[in-house]
Amino acid sequence: MIVTFYNPLNMCFGGGGERWLFEISRRLSQKGYEVNIISLKYPPNTNRPNFRANNDFHYFELPYVKLPRGNPIPSPSSIRDILKKFNDSDVVYFYVSPPNEIILKIFKSGLRSPIIGGFHSFMWHRITLQRLYSYFMKYSLKVFNAFHVLNSYLFDLLQTWDYNNIYFIPNGVDTSIFKPITFHEGSTSERFEVLFVSRFVKEKGIDVLINVIKWINEKYTNIKNKIMFKIAGKGTLKTMIERLTSKYNNVIYLGFLDANALVREYSRSHTLVITSYIENMPLTLLEASACGLPAIASAVPGILDVVKTLGYGALVKVGSYKDFARAILRFYQFFIRNPDAYLRIRRIIRERTVRNYDWGLIVNKFEKMLKDLNAH
């Protein structure tokens, strides 16, 4: 079977959608599928990796047009190449990325292959302009033969829009890589270690994280030296993180970590904090959970599904730095008072992550969706 994926952002963008795309393409290729990935040359980056040399799938980058709002769209010169690739495929997987679905709708009459609309972001309903765009989206989604969503919120939303043939398949995690090095009382440090791993951009709640650290350090001076904040990642707001590390001696910037380093940090830390304003289903949460690390996270779609499935973790009101701080202090007190129960929880989180989110399980569900579409 030939499967073609379309994502307007190129693979070097490095977000969760691109990481998911790389992993699902690699795994489908290993199962015998012929996989194409079509993206646009956006964002421009002369140092992007050469995915064309990857033996697992075929990767194409095409010219783009960047509009004042929304995602880039293919340049007029790219449309013909994209349509040809689509029609040479048995199934097409198309990232729903405004306004690309409208472009697809315009050329619907020239398409022969079944098309799945994949939702890897739903920021379009969060602000006024994008909420207004949803009226156009409801119409343009008719171009798709099926839908793939990562969380129950989007599943329910599409149903309220009278769409069906919706596949709820969450993100996956490689539990053979992301696994606890050891379950122990914590790190070699005597302090309770709070880990934050993310891109340093506004929607990830960097401002909330900063206020959490300030509030704990300035309000709870008696225990601030017993709690260490470790921050990993990179992004445009990196200077804000660096100012924190210079101000407080219990804040450490770890830089950008590869998978092996992440496993070590997930294993040695005591809790993961996710302060995002919006998420679909963050891979960081699944990676940490596969290592048995409990999370304190914003109560947003995707995160809600994972925490409820695992049965442990704290869901916090979006943007409330005081609620995040209080949850961290509760986790700290729980760990100090009952370390054995804490370790039992870590083991349960690991076991339930393997049972529900291992990539082997997720790929099988995704493969069934492809076969369903190809059969019709």
Topology (elements, then pairings):
Elements: E1 2-7, H1 16-30, E2 34-40, E3 58-62, E4 64-65, E5 73-74, H2 76-87, E6 91-95, H3 100-106, E7 115-118, H4 128-140, E8 146-149, H5 152-160, E9 166-168, E10 192-199, H6 206-219, E11 227-234, H7 238-247, E12 251-255, H8 259-268, E13 271-274, H9 283-290, E14 295-298, H10 303-310, E15 314-316, H11 321-337, H12 339-357, H13 359-375
Radius of gyration: 21 Å
| Percentage of residues assigned to helices | 40-55%
Per CATH, the superfamily of the largest domain is Glycogen Phosphorylase B
Strand order of the largest sheet: 3-2-1-6-7-8-9
Structural class: alpha/beta
Instruction: Name the CATH architecture of the largest domain.
Output: 3-Layer(aba) Sandwich
User: Are there runs of 5+ residues with pLDDT below 50, and where?
Assistant: none
Quaternary assembly? single chain
Q: Could you say how many structural domains there are in total?
A: 2
- What would the principal axes of the Cα set say about the shape? globular
Biggest β-sheet description: 7 strands, parallel
CATH class of the largest domain: Alpha Beta
CATH topology call of the largest domain? Rossmann fold
